[in-house]
Amino acid sequence: MYTESDLARTYYDLGVTLDGLPGAELACADNATLANSSWSEKANPLNASEAPRGEFRVYDFTNPDTRDRWVARVADLVGSGAIDGAFIDGNRGGWSSSATACASDAARAAWALGLNASTRALRAAVGDATLISNYPTSEALRYATGGMIERFTPNQDIDELQGLAKRGSLVAVHAQYATEPHLSKHLAAFLVGMGEKSYFGAGVGWDGDGADACDTWLRRWDEFEKPLGKPTADAAVVAGAPPKAKWTRSFGSGTHVLLDTTPERDYDTVSCIWWSDGTVTSGDPFGCNGTAALAGTPLADVHAAWLAAHGEAVAATPFAPRTLRMTLYRADAEESSAPEGCGVDEKVYDLPALGTCYSPPILFPGDGQWGAFDVRDAMDGAKLRRAFFNTTDGTCGAETDHFEVPLDACVGPFGPPRPWGRFAFVA
């Protein structure tokens, strides 16, 4: 069941209320309205006798009777056998909450101690029943079975997920803003960090009741039905250092995953999940040439076996292994701008797979067409994005500049000796 420790959203819904209990609600000294920017609803003055629709009260955990009733609301249902536990919303660390911002520092400290005592009493009352704390803080995990990472992000929360999994905690990952194009990044990050008691959900916000919830935060994505199996090992960091790292991991079914958060822009994070049924989940199919992306990693052989089993089907999709070809031209002697055919004296460069960092002087030694610094090519929507870095050894340190150009079109001017060119994929 759902219960809460901050804004009393279920105050009128759970059968055990605080009506007629003096002092059960936290009163602000100035009778102020709560201001909580993360909620569209505004709460009523906390010592009002009635809460209009769309407004909330706050439980006063300094009141022993409030604590008893808050505990009983869950414990009575667990004892009846109707439920096997509860999700406790609200704790943001140190038993704090912005819901008490209108109170004095002393009142907030006393409230936090009361919430700690209430949670401890709830654990004692429900025995081994499951208790899930929103935000799995160290304080909450003294009493809770596990926690929920409410706003899971691929480049920030993997370490937290791995830590919870290793200690055997139940952890629910909620990718709150994982809309269709971005699901892969959140799901790949979850697969990197998950453990035996880890669970994943992804949706847009928390809106929706009943059937509507299944289209938002309770949506069951097609990927949830894919075969997975047990992890063959912990995730391997094959480049960088967390949180800016490149992770790989494989599972017993043959499913394997790559997550690369090393690009400077979070938007450019590369995520690829190659499922054992031959399908691929990624928001950037052109960055999922596994042969190149996994070369030299523990998954190179795993991916080779996957391609051998599914290569024919994959070849008909955007996830087929591709390389980028750049063809450069000199301008016609009589033309000062790019001619219709891009010029004469063409030179062809077959480049590494998209998303691969490379050093042009190492790849094309003695070629004056290139500069000294590292390059990474990637797709940004329908355009090729070429980024330049401050390193010269193929490691792509900090990005210093970039340009974007369309594919299969004459573009330029670049530097001499061949200022015009085309970019195209080679299957």
CATH class value of the largest domain: Alpha Beta
Oligomerization status of the protein chains:
single chain
Question: CATH topology of the largest domain, what is it called?
Answer: TIM Barrel
Domain module tally: 3
Largest sheet: 6 strands, parallel
From the structure above, extract its key features.
six-stranded parallel beta sheet; alpha/beta; 7 helices; single chain; 427 residues
Set down the secondary structure blueprint.
Blueprint: E1 2-4, H1 64-80, E2 85-89, H2 105-126, E3 130-134, E4 146-149, H3 158-166, E5 170-175, H4 183-193, E6 198-202, E7 236-241, E8 244-250, E9 256-260, E10 270-274, E11 280-281, H5 290-293, H6 300-314, E12 323-330, E13 344-351, E14 357-358, H7 360-363, E15 375-380, E16 383-389, E17 399-406, E18 420-426
Helix pairs in contact: 1-2, 3-4
Describe it for me?
This protein is α/β, with parallel strands linked by helices. The chain folds into three domains: 2-225, Alpha-Beta Barrel (TIM Barrel), CATH 3.20.20; 236-314, no CATH class; 323-426, no CATH class. The protein contains seven helices and 18 strands. The protein has helices spanning 64-80, 105-126, 158-166, 183-193, 290-293, 300-314, 360-363, and strands at residues 2-4, 85-89, 130-134, 146-149, 170-175, 198-202, 236-241, 244-250, 256-260, 270-274, 280-281, 323-330, 344-351, 357-358, 375-380, 383-389, 399-406, 420-426. The strands form four sheets. The chain has a six-stranded parallel beta sheet with strand order 1-2-3-4-5-6. The protein is elongated. It starts with a strand and ends with a strand.
